[in-house]
Specification:
The chain is α+β, with helices and mostly antiparallel strands. It has 5 helices and 13 strands. A 7-stranded antiparallel β-sheet has the order 1-2-13-3-4-11-12. The protein has a 4-stranded antiparallel β-sheet with strand order 7-6-5-10, with no helix packed on it. A two-stranded antiparallel ribbon has the order 8-9.
């Protein structure tokens, strides 16, 4: 009877430990590649984009969509394009680039932006829609638009003249002092101003409760991180829609978040938002 024993080539029998290490290393490389070039997970911590995006929405962001391709194969492999008006954008906060912000791009380089009694005008045209929310009654939360001219949008806080808006000062722009927030006087009235080259103007959809370009200036295009393309999970922080997400500063906060998620996963998850695409 022939010997049916099969002998592996020298070095093929690597052992369980080596096999597992190779699989683990390959998985880590895939994760690093995905987070660096393809997508990343972000969590909405505040109500500045409510109700388009809610506190506790866990997003996957497309990181390559606004990138500039260096080679032809990049453009073919990854569908890249320039940022456009109406895009929801993830970007590094101009004065603290360790923080990521999420807003809506409402104006591009060269656009003329003006806010008059809460109404947004870009190049002289009123910009509104279902994405634009205003707070008429604090108990009811943000109410969605559209908000045509003459619509009741709540009281106007101030009519301060545009000349006081600090980010038009060339010296401030030269010193890169964006991020030093101004007062609320520019929330409801601003402009007209022209968006400089290399920048966009970002605003939160929850217009009465959003710290955005009205307060800290323009968003450099080079600081764009991507565009949210899916809510993969949404969790009501504190069991309601108004409790801000915990500011994670260490292992203790991570453990608290994990405990809350485990304890209230079924009750506090917004199942109707799972798999939705923010627009």
């Amino acid at each position: 009877m022939a010997d049916e024993t099969r002998h592996l080539p020298s070095g093929a029998a690597k052992g369980t430990i080596r096999d597992n290490l190779e699989v683990a290393c390959f998985a880590v490389l895939l994760i690093v590649f995905f987070k660096t070039f393809v997508g990343q997970q972000f969590t909405i911590p505040s109500a500045s984009m409510r109700n388009t995006m809610m506190i506790g929405d866990h997003l996957l962001a497309n990181k390559f969509i606004f990138a500039t391709p260096q080679w032809d194969w990049e453009a073919k492999l990854f569908p890249m394009r320039k940022v456009d008006r109406g895009d929801i954008i993830v970007f590094r906060y101009p004065m603290n680039r360790d923080m990521d912000y999420v807003k809506r791009c409402v104006a591009l380089p060269g656009d003329r932006v003006e806010v008059r009694s809460k109404h947004l005008y870009v190049n002289g045209k009123l910009v509104t829609g279902e994405f634009e929310h205003h707070i008429l009654n604090g108990e009811d939360g943000p109410v969605r638009g559209p908000w045509p001219e003459g619509a009741a949008m709540g009281p106007v806080e101030s009519d301060r003249p545009i000349g006081l808006w600090p980010f038009l000062d060339p010296e401030i722009a030269k010193a890169d002092l964006q991020g030093h927030e101004t007062t609320n006087g520019f929330r409801d009235n601003l402009g007209p101003i022209t968006v400089p080259e290399g920048c966009v103007f970002g605003m939160g959809d929850n217009r009465d409760n959003s710290a955005d370009s009205r307060y800290w200036g323009f968003v450099p295009i080079e600081q764009l991180r991507g565009r949210p393309f899916m809510v993969w999970w949404s969790f009501r922080e504190g069991g309601n829609d108004d409790t801000g997400a915990r500011d994670v500063k260490g292992p203790t906060d991570v453990a608290k978040n994990f405990a809350d998620g485990a304890q209230h996963f079924f009750q506090w998850s917004r199942w109707e938002r799972t798999g939705t695409i923010p627009r």
